[in-house]
Write a structure and sequence with these properties.
Structural class: alpha+beta
GO biological process, one term: nucleosome assembly
Largest sheet: 4 strands, antiparallel
Keywords: Nucleus
Number of strands: 6
Number of helices: 12
Order of helices and strands: HHHHHHHHHEEEEEEHHH
Strand order of the largest sheet: 1-2-3-4
Distance between the termini: 38 Å
Low-confidence stretches: 1-48, 382-400
CATH superfamily of the largest domain: Nucleosome assembly protein
Protein name: Putative nucleosome assembly protein nap-1
Radius of gyration: 30 Å
CATH class of the largest domain: Alpha Beta
Helix content: 40-55%
Subcellular location: Nucleus
Family: Belongs to the nucleosome assembly protein (NAP) family.
Shape: extended
Length: 400
């Protein structure tokens, strides 16, 4: 090993406990001694190897945090023979050639998405008409039976809640047109979007008729269009959010390329009616004059949480390095939502409405928790068998 790599190991050993990801296979707390300073070339005479803790993570860098892993691997490469390092550089140049071809692939993917969106649109238009109640499906159009719609599959837990559900469910008349509150319910069903929707937004979102996608002809971009029925809050028929894409290799960081990415978004101006803007709220504050003691009340408008803030994203400066951390996080979240709407929610809207598709892994987590609980119960059962009848201080069951 080179001296620089040994030196790095010495210094990193002091702080790597803050970076290492816990693993069921390698528990750092069990392997690293309290005093983690190891002199270069020094071995421990005791039962444990003082260098073993960090050495295990150098041999298996996957358990290190991203930053520390990168540093370890780069220094590892520098410690290799010069001929090997030259071959690695050749591989990196080949990787750049690969990326160059891949950018063209993603540009063609965009054109394909735009082409097929035009083929999807007649189907989505029919969906819109059914939801709005301007078209009534009949015959084979309404003949569909899903396994998930079978009452026998309702869980025991849901049976217990069914009585309460009947008391709080929406009470629509039998002759209701279309599918009421279709998009509002979808937004409430999707975790990523539901967090944005406030109770005061619902009265407007009940008027949301459709959400559509329009791909740009000048460069790579797409626009989400939110179509509204007339409402008392704003005069816009359509609210838009445009996302700009790129599939380019960054000169400063070429190996970060992972395909098409959103790099900017632009909202629209909402023409709010007077006193109906949900994105601001008016607060009243009393001020007392220090000398005279007179009290006056002032009012001012402050930002208010609302779904409609979605249409006023932070502006991305030309030099994206100047974005502050708060706006950077807001944009990252915004890009995620925009991508999710385009790729998942709009194409599969009815499935999010019915619950045939959900946007999280809660079911998988529940299954894992049940398995863990079962394992614990089995372990306790073994203890009971070993210990016989209950005692005041039963022996601990040793973990195998």
């Amino acid at each position: 090993r080179s001296v620089s790599f040994v030196t790095f190991v010495e210094s990193a050993t002091l702080r790597f406990s803050a970076h290492v990801r816990q693993s069921p296979v390698n528990r750092m707390s069990e392997e690293v001694p309290d005093k983690a300073v190891v002199d270069a070339g020094q071995e421990s005479d005791g039962d444990g190897d003082e260098k073993g803790g960090f050495k295990n993570y150098v041999n298996s860098p996957a358990f290190l945090s991203g930053m520390l892993r990168r540093q370890v691997l780069q220094l590892m490469v520098k410690s290799l023979p010069n001929n090997v390092q030259k071959r690695i550089k050749a591989l990196k140049n080949l990787q750049l050639e690969y990326f160059d071809i891949e950018t063209k692939f993603y540009e063609e993917v965009y054109e394909l998405e735009k082409k097929y969106q035009a083929l999807y649109n007649p189907i989505l238009e029919k969906r819109r008409n059914i939801v709005a109640g301007t078209y009534e499906p009949s015959g084979k159009e309404v003949e569909y039976q899903s396994d998930h719609e079978d009452d026998s599959e309702i869980t025991e837990k849901m049976k217990e809640l069914s009585a309460e559900f009947k008391g709080i469910k929406d009470d629509y008349p039998a002759d209701v047109k279309g599918i009421p509150d279709f998009w509002l319910k979808i937004f409430r069903n999707v975790t990523l979007i539901s967090d944005m929707v406030q109770e005061h937004d619902e009265v407007i979102l009940k008027k949301l008729k459709d959400v559509t996608i329009k791909y740009g002809d000048d460069g790579m971009s797409y626009t989400l269009e939110f179509h509204f029925e007339p409402n008392e809050h704003f005069t816009n028929d359509i609210l838009t959010k445009q996302y700009f894409l790129k599939a380019a290799i960054e000169k400063d960081d070429p190996f970060s390329f992972e395909g098409t990415e959103i790099y900017k978004c632009v909202g629209c101006v909402i023409n709010w009616n007077k006193g109906m803007n949900l994105t601001v709220k008016t607060i009243r504050k009393k001020q007392k004059h220090k000398a005279r003691g007179a009290v006056r009340t002032i009012t001012k408008q402050v930002p208010n949480d609302s779904f409609f803030n979605f249409f006023s994203p932070p502006i991305v400066p030309e030099d994206d390095s100047k974005i502050d951390s708060e706006n950077e996080n807001l944009l990252a979240s915004d890009f995620e939502i925009g991508h999710f709407l385009r790729s998942r929610v709009i194409p599969k809207a009815v499935l999010y409405y019915t619950g045939d598709v959900v946007d999280d892994d809660d079911d998988d987590m529940d299954e894992e928790e049940e398995e863990e609980e079962d394992a614990e119960e089995e372990s306790e059962g073994e203890c009971d068998k070993i210990g016989g009848s209950k005692k005041e201080n039963p022996p601990e069951c040793k973990q195998q």
